[in-house]
Predict the 3D structure of the following.
Amino acid sequence: MLLTVAAVAWALLGVPQQAKVTGHVTLLPQREQYSPAIGDTVLSNPWTPVTLADVIAVRLDSPALAEDLFNQGYRGEWTVTVINTGAAIIAIEVLADTEADARRVIDVMDGLIADEVTTRQSTFGLAEGAKITTVPLADADIVENDNSTRRRYAVLAAGAGTVLAVSAAALAEWLSRRRRRAADGY
């Protein structure tokens, strides 16, 4: 049991805390509305901010992007969700060893979102006012210390220690009974 207590103490004190940073980027709709004259052809944007945000979220969650960013030296794990509150907001939650690593991933994601918005609309030849734009909500960064890794290791150590302690007690009981039977002549 002392080994279990020591393992749990190590998990709680020795495993480093991770930083969780959440960043947000909003996709703003096109600024100009067109009222074409009869007979005029006007190119309109086929994307809405929400559909474009959904498509971009799929790209940001891809394993290929995660591998590419890891190879470029970015460290962290992230999840991307689209929040539709009237405006399309892409929320990026990054879990990394340090706050600086998490913020670096948020910064590169902000750039990837802006590039992806531009690329997805470039094939339609839209006027500047007809394009969807992005605005990183820098003031909306949420920084938390994440202890989930510590808790997982502590629970694992406590569980493994309990299993070992119960197994040792059962083995000791079995050996004790075996010796008594041998002494009694069974």
The two ends are 33 Å apart (CA to CA).
